[in-house]
Design brief:
Rossmann fold; 2 domains; 10 helices; binds guanine; five-stranded parallel β-sheet; alpha/beta; globular; 39% helix
Length: 302
């Protein structure tokens, strides 16, 4: 049976964070006579990316943040996308710029990320923001790790000395997550597809963070009893009814939730865990960018 007290409710945490951000965006609007503004660029028709972008725009609207959505066809040239970004970089009414990833293969993600003005890089992917995070002096922290970090700080009084194992070494999650936790005095192990004895590493983790994109790969045999589990994976499983041929999709994480919930101390569900926090952190970074770009002080909430 599911034990609700073991669930880390990301949806609730996201609502709490947005409640703190709302008065700040309101204050900004009164002072500068416009809302903080986020530009979101989407190239192509990837169904998951379309849903993520829609949710980002809807959340912005609800939180007094103006959004500009720029949808471009899949065959958009790199040059055209760079031009769009240069226009947004120059536009003093735009505070944050987000290019939804992944991009089509003919466009260099590296080049695109580097073309965004670091002071508008609300994803925190630009090398300058990445470097500042690594040095322990961040401006903009990538939204997914920032959301995980927020929940961990709320759940645990103390992060000092905790053994953390991260599965996945991406620039979007694994690497920035490691950097944040290292700065909070955790002992961090980053594992990946070539790691030997993954189970052995995981079974030593007080905190296990999985971002590998392998549906329900991690079961209770990987888990140290009483560990905290953060599941970053969002995998769409296709369920087909053999009789009716009807297809349905189910969202699952990297963690086998039913297997792990009984042995762990607490766990984030999918959906309703990390996903809503990622979007709330994007709102946080956008409002922060809006204040900083007017040379106004912004006291970090996270
Ligand atoms: N694709 C998956 N996650 C993200 C994210 O956090 N930001 C952007 N821009 N693209 C993504």
């Amino acid at each position: 049976m599911q034990n609700i007290s073991k669930i880390i409710n990301g949806k609730q945490y996201a609502e709490n964070l947005l409640k703190e951000i709302f008065p700040l965006s309101n204050h900004y609007s009164k002072k500068f006579l416009r809302n903080p503004c986020l530009a979101v660029l989407l190239v192509g028709e990837d169904p998951a990316s379309k849903i993520y972008v829609k949710n980002k725009i809807l959340t912005a609207e609800k939180n007094n943040i103006t959004s500009v959505e720029i949808k471009l066809p899949i065959d958009t040239s790199e040059e055209h996308l760079l031009n769009e970004i240069y226009k947004l970089n120059k536009d003093t009414n735009v505070d944050g710029i987000l290019v939804q990833l992944p991009l089509p293969l003919h466009i260099s993600e590296k080049l695109i990320i580097q073309s965004i003005n670091p002071s508008k890089d609300v994803d925190g992917f630009h090398p300058i923001n990445f470097g500042k995070l690594l040095m322990g002096d961040p401006d903009f922290v990538p939204c997914t790790p920032l959301g995980c970090f927020y929940m961990l700080k709320k759940e645990l009084n103390e992060l000092d000395g905790k053994n953390v194992v991260i599965i996945g070494r991406s620039n979007i999650v694994g690497k920035p997550m490691a950097s944040l936790l290292l700065s909070s005095n955790c002992t961090v192990t980053v594992t990946h597809s070539k790691t030997k004895n993954l189970k052995e590493h995981c079974s030593d983790a007080d905190i296990l963070i999985s971002a590998i994109g392998k549906p329900e790969m991690i079961d209770d045999t990987y888990i140290k009893p009483n560990a905290i589990i953060i599941d970053v994976g969002i995998n769409r499983l296709k369920l087909e009814n053999a009789k009716t041929n009807e297809k349905k999709y189910k969202l699952v994480g990297d963690i086998n939730f039913e297997s792990v919930i009984n042995v762990s101390q607490k766990i984030t569900p999918v959906p309703g865990g990390v996903g809503p926090m990622t979007i709330a952190c994007l709102m946080h970074n956008t409002v922060k960018a809006a204040f900083l770009n007017k040379n106004e002080k912004f006291v970090n909430i996270i």
